[in-house]
Write a structure and sequence with these properties.
Blueprint lengths: L1 H18 L12 H5 L2 H8 L1 H9 L9 H12 L2 H7 L6 H16 L3 H10 L3 H18 L17 H23 L15 H16 L5 H15 L4 H18 L12
Helix pairs in contact: 1-5, 7-9, 10-11, 11-12, 11-13, 12-13
Length: 267
Amino acid sequence: NFFYALRQWAIRETEARKKAYLDSSKSIFVDPERFIENPYLMAITESETLREAWKKYKINHWYLNEKYVVKVYKEYVSSASFKTYMELDKPTLKEHQSQLLTLFHDFIAPNDDLYSFIEDGVLSWVDDFPVVNTFILKQLSMLDIKKNNAFDGWSSLVNEEDRKFATALLSKISLNFDSYAKEIEGKTPNWDQDRITDVDRILLIMGIGELLDFESIPPRVTLNEYLEIAKEYSTPKSSMFINGILDQLSKEFTAEKRMKKAGRGLL
């Protein structure tokens, strides 16, 4: 809800200047009401769908950490892009939308202080950061404020199908962890079991679970997925190690008719 906090601060700034009877020409706003009344910004901050999501996930960081909001706000209203926007004669909806994209892309996303603050509270932020930023930019660029359900896809980065899959995989691994782990025995002649890192072991067990118990996932997709995950989260040589073991197991499971695939899983 950073956009909400940003707009609230802008409203307070505008009202304070009005009460102080400041000459509008000296204001940091060329047209004080334009940013506040940006239709896209208003749609986001007044959306009941988003407000429900904020309540559900208890997102209220900025109430006690307003300095981050103020910093971004001051940098933004001092910029050339803001001045250009405020001096437009009659901005179109597209121009209003473009300005909100600029605000996020150029001032919110790259702000180091904001990044550090979120990272301190969310340990996985270093991994989530590019995904979240891409998601927000995509949603802003596709946002149609004329639709009643414009924000239906904003409440989660994960769609329902992905959520069901993740839950099912976790359940399978919890129930079959020991049996999956036994599949690895004897497949690592150059590695003692104790030398396999915890991350590699978990990735192998997850891969085995997908191969054996998810008939709609093609084996090559499983192998490619865990190859990429290992590259990102494990040691330099882990990706090839994991890929080799899963490839060997995939062939064995197929030969023993233990790996049953159907539908998309046959591709």
